[in-house]
């Protein structure tokens, strides 16, 4: 079955949401009302194109689950400006006439310069909650170092459950206090262990500190230089987060977020 046929055919009951992994750090969330929330989708080969000096280091290894234009994006959330999160080659297909974009100040400026309607581009600021239909977005701090000092994580609160998207971050606990205090029910964490990100062992430790019930690893198996070994988080979850279920998705697979 084609990916978008699977998305359209997935029935989402009240007090639940379907979370699909798009590969890399990208996710699509389908709500009970049928809206599509798309987070950090990477559909093109723009990273390899823009960093040719790395040769095969940023060659795309896993194809996207569908074409970018097939997504019926209602809300597009972009955590920061790195091109495996902000896909400059695909963003024109992702943003529809109805799409509202929520992002950091750097991506918002870039989208404005690309000619997108700035009235539908919203800058997220840490700690300032955004109330939308069916859910809210709370932007939170993360530590992506000097690579992207304005990078964000965020917590999506659907009322029945809260989903934390850590974004690209190191395990710098003083900067991760808000998510740990909130204790979201589900957390999406990077495991690649390169460019300042959590590795599998650190992600397992963080899942334990978050006290989340479900952990979804991401940010692996797209580029050779990004590394990432899901076996590492598998081996450490039992010790570091014994009460957390590890939801290891294959690309295009979904997880049902519910009460």
Automatic annotation (TrEMBL):
Q: Which residues form the Metallo-beta-lactamase domain?
A: 23-219
What single Pfam family name could you report for this chain, choosing any that match?
Lactamase_B_3
Q: What is this protein called?
A: MBL fold metallo-hydrolase
Species lineage, top-down?
Answer: Bacteria, Bacillati, Bacillota, Clostridia, Lachnospirales
């Amino acid at each position: 079955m084609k990916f978008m046929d699977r998305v359209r055919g997935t029935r989402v009951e009240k007090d639940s949401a379907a979370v699909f992994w798009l590969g890399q750090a990208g996710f699509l969330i389908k709500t009970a009302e049928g809206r599509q929330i798309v987070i950090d989708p990477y559909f093109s080969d723009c990273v390899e194109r823009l960093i040719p000096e790395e040769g095969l280091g940023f060659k795309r290894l896993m194809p996207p689950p569908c074409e970018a234009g097939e997504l019926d994006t209602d809300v597009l959330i972009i955590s920061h400006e790195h091109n495996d999160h902000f896909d400059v080659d695909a963003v024109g297909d992702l943003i529809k006439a109805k799409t509202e974009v929520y992002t950091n100040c750097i991506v918002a400026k870039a989208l404005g310069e690309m000619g997108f309607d700035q009235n539908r581009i919203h800058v997220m600021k840490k700690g300032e909650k955004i109330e939308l239909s069916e859910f809210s977005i709370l932007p939170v701090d993360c530590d992506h170092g000097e690579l992207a000092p304005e990078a964000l994580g965020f917590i999506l609160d659907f009322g029945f459950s809260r989903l934390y998207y850590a974004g690209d971050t190191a395990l710098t606990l003083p900067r991760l206090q808000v998510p740990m205090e909130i204790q979201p029910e589900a957390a999406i964490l990077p495991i690649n262990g390169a460019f300042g990100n959590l590795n599998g062992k650190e992600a397992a430790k963080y899942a334990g500190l978050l006290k989340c019930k479900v952990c979804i690893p991401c940010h692996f198996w797209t580029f050779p230089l990004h590394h990432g070994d899901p076996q590492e988080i598998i081996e450490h979850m039992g010790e570091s987060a014994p009460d957390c279920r590890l939801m290891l998705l294959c690309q295009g697979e979904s997880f049902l977020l519910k009460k």
